[in-house]
Amino acid sequence: MVCMISIGKCPLSDPLPILHKYYHPGDHIIGGIISQIYIFSNEITFKKYPSPELSAEHIHFTASWIYLASMELLFRHGRFIPNFKCGVKNNPVAVIGGPNSNVCLHMATILCGYKMPQLIYGSAPVMKNKSEAVFFHRMFPNGAQQYKGILQLLLHFTWTWIGVITQDEDNTEEFTENVLPMFSQNGICFDFIERSPKQTVFSEIIDILEEGHKILTIVLKSTANVVIVHGEIHTMVTMRMFNWGSEFENKPLKTLGKVWLMTAQVDFTSFPFQREWDIGFLHGALSFGFHPKVVFGFERFLQSRNPTLVKEDGFIQEFWEQAFECFFPSSDVDKINGGICTGKEKLETLPGTVFEMNMTGHSYSIYNTVYAIAHALDVMHSSQYKPSHRAKMNGGGWNHMNQHKLHHFLRSVSFNNTAGEKISFDQNREIEVGFHIFNWIILQNQSLVRVKVGRTDPEAPSDKLLTLLEDAIVWPKRFNQARPLSLCNNNCRSGYRKTKLEGKPFCCYACLPCPGGKISNWNDTDDCFQCAEDHYTNNNQDGCIPKVITFLSYKEPLGTILATSALSFSLITVLILGVFIKNQDTPIVKANNRSLTYTLLISLLLSFLCAFLFIGRPEKMSCLLRQIAFAILFSLAVSCLLAKTIIVILAFMATKPGSKMRKWMGKRLVISIVLSCTLIQAVICTVWLTISPPFPDADMQSMNEEIVLECNEGSTLMFCCVLGFMGSLAIFSFTVAFVARKLPDSFNEAKFITFSMLVFCSVWLSFVPTYLSTRGKYMVAVEIFSILASSVGILGCIFSPKCYIIMLRPDLNKKEKLMGSK
Asked: Which of 15, 318, 465, 683 gives 20 to 30 Å between its CA and that of 757?
């Protein structure tokens, strides 16, 4: 529709008559008629192109008729003489174009050459010629704001897997090339992007159906539950054909439950033959658009319209015949269908799918457009111009200078319309209003109700652009009023992570369990993450549980058993020491150096008591003492056994005639052996304490569910040196004892030393792999067990035979028995 506003001899009056709803081809019955409106006071004339004999359905916004209508606007009313202006009467001052973008694009070719102000109430065309764009004022809000609102809506509902249907028009290129990539950058994927066929003439309806069937097949197979529809006001005609075709596939669109998300350019329109078609597939759809304010008197005005009262309106008669399915006697409409029109039919009796009594968004834009021009002209006329200039404007010519001034006043126009809404343009000559979000509800009688469920605020930050009343939304019946999901696949639940599928969009992915020790506590996480050191993963790997602090305690069974064992063996050692002291003058006690025996028993006693340093909560002092005390005491004990063995060997060699070994016999040798071995171990321990001493530590890694309080050895190398020296000393003692075990004597202690060293070496050789294979408090338990076992081995092998003789066989505890004979 092209609407022309011109200046006559009478002042411009109330422009409400321009808002005849049936003028608007976007309101349910597409007429495809290029119309021309002249406003002179209260008089409205309406002229159609082409001639009445060509039905409205046969033409759809074709370029040739738009060019013709645009040229006709520039010449005297009723006469068409190109390149000539015959008279100055009824010259146009502005043109209202729409709703199709092609209408505005084609009329710009003619009108921009005359610097004609053009106001667009529908889809804005993509102007490649920037010089022509300055003549446009857009009553349609900024498109970028709408696309950001759609993106926010998709992200709000986490609809990341969608389909897109666009109209095969020039202005959809920008949407495909610029807007859709913006969606992809924000995590939106597309199952399909299809172009619906361009509507031209009625004869090509078969081609439209064929192209539509291809798109319908894609929609039916798609797993996306949300489909964005971007098009023009007549796109609904094609969508209704999709639904009509789906019924032949035995898969009606309404049973699939797709959520149609329509841009503001799309409105409910149809061909006359579609009026009985089911529109249930639109139930639960969402659309962006304008929210028209209630215009006082508009409904009463519509009720007063009929063909008999408006003789000069050539379009209303044709609309009346199509809407009420009747014909006027003088009409060329096929008289087979319907009865005779009386002209007294009431518009309010028409179904909502044919005609709505409420003002739609596009009609409201026209309403505001007319008022904007009226206010701009009013301000322009009331400005303080020279009397001669004013007279020229009122009575003479309307020239390009006046049109240029009108551009200026249009840019700065700001007013409150009769509905109470403020209307103004921004610096880009676009109206400064936001979009509203509507929920389409289809009632059982096929009536369409649009419910406002949200809006966009052009002045709000980008992350708060959208305001939504989610609880007010009615979804398609398939979803049973639950929020629809539109995902390529199910969400990866907690405990899983996403992994890319080759050859699929990034929204399509598989789910893999988190590896051990990692969790994911959100759906659709890209990667799992490690719990804090003092936490561990639960069985589902979707949460972290605090670790339990643990150490070898006296209160737990293992600690109690080890402590009791250490205490018991300590008491046994004390008893043995008491027995030996009590019988210190007997031959068996005096044999093999009584001082060494006491020293050995005391070292074993302290070794048993040393186990208590390993039990309980690790402290700084206990960590410093435990390994040092253990190393020195065991070195002392083993060195005592080595000294005993060497004495046995020297004693045997000294009995040979002429032997020089007698001079080595005595306490000095014993003290030298014991002190030298013990001092070497003491030096190693001193170096260890100097370089890197043991300290209390918390091991959070070894045990999955526990924090083990332990003594960190500080320097592992020095710990190995301590054990290495002790092991070397034990092996050397075992070797010497093994050599001396068969020396002739009635009581050869070397045999028992051999057994004790065999036990000692076996325990500590098995200690190394066992210690390294255990974790936490069990490492400490292994070391305590090795200390007790090796000490018990020495105590049992060395002293049990002697205690047996002392306590049970005192008859053998005599010198002549011990000396023996060959």
From this structure: 683
